[in-house]
Design goal:
- It is a single chain.
- With about 260 residues, the protein is of the alpha+beta class.
- The chain has five helices and twelve strands.
- It starts with a helix and ends in a 25-residue tail after the last helix.
């Protein structure tokens, strides 16, 4: 009887240890999964930009790929062959490298050369495609899902437009953005995303290795065929970028509301 009891006790202890280890593994796995969707983690997000006239089917206009890692964000426009890579230093100064992917060359803009991207709110529009100030003005209508799968739907209406945003708070990403105005709807839709840090880092490292010319030195570099061509097609002067409608209007910032 003592032997049988001893075996039962041993088995019971072993089962308890297995259960504790299993629970710890599940917790660890869940924690790791949750970390993967934190907003500060590396991310790659593909967007399709389309427009829909009243009572018509949507028409695809362009694609944009958002790349993000700590203190850096890139907006890649495949059809244009342009990637805009923004970096923010510890003093919150923001600089821009505009790369021309087919040429593997870039133009580097110092913080003093950049128009309209200075504040925390401007930076949020770069990293999220929508400014924090605009999101704060919107009304939360619906919440679905939990943790990494959480989705929030916001709306904002005024006399001239209706804006609807489906927001992924865990990633600080727009899933869908719709702006209805004057019988037309501009739509940005997230088609795929990845948190593969190796892929994201490889993208940034590749572009940061391209040779660049300082914007301040453009006037002294017009003998360079690349620079001359970029000037002729109007790609040297810095302009705002981010979320645009079909007419090229910047629609992600607070100043539109």
């Amino acid at each position: 009887m003592n032997t049988s009891k001893s075996i039962r006790n041993t088995l019971g202890s072993a089962i308890c240890r297995i259960a504790v280890i299993a629970a710890a593994c599940i917790f660890s796995s869940t924690a790791a999964y949750a970390m993967n969707c934190e907003a500060g983690e590396a991310i790659n997000a593909h967007y399709q930009v389309s427009e829909r006239a009243e009572n018509a089917k949507p028409k695809t206009l362009a694609n944009m790929v958002l790349w993000r890692r700590a203190n850096s964000v890139a907006e890649q426009y495949p059809e244009k062959g342009i990637t805009e890579l923004w970096e923010r230093n510890h003093a919150s100064a923001i600089k821009l490298n505009r790369y021309f992917d087919a040429y593997e060359r870039g133009i580097e803009y110092a913080p003093s050369d950049i128009k309209g991207v200075k504040s925390d709110d401007d930076w949020s529009m770069k990293t999220q495609l929508i400014a924090d100030s605009l999101l704060a003005k919107m009304t939360l209508n619906k919440k679905t899902g939990k943790a990494c799968e959480r989705e929030e739907t916001y709306t904002l209406k005024d006399k001239s437009q209706t804006v609807t945003v489906t927001w992924l708070p865990a990633y600080k990403l727009v899933k869908e953005y719709q702006r209805e105005a004057n019988g037309h709807t501009s739509i940005w839709s997230l088609t795929e995303k990845s948190t593969d840090s190796k892929m994201v880092n490889a993208f940034f490292d590749k572009h940061l290795n391209y040779p660049t010319t300082d914007y301040a030195d453009i006037g002294d570099s017009e003998s360079d065929p690349f620079i001359r061509k970029m000037i002729n097609i109007g790609f040297i002067e810095h302009g705002s970028s981010g979320m645009y409608d079909a007419q090229g209007n910047d629609i992600g910032g607070e100043h539109h509301h």
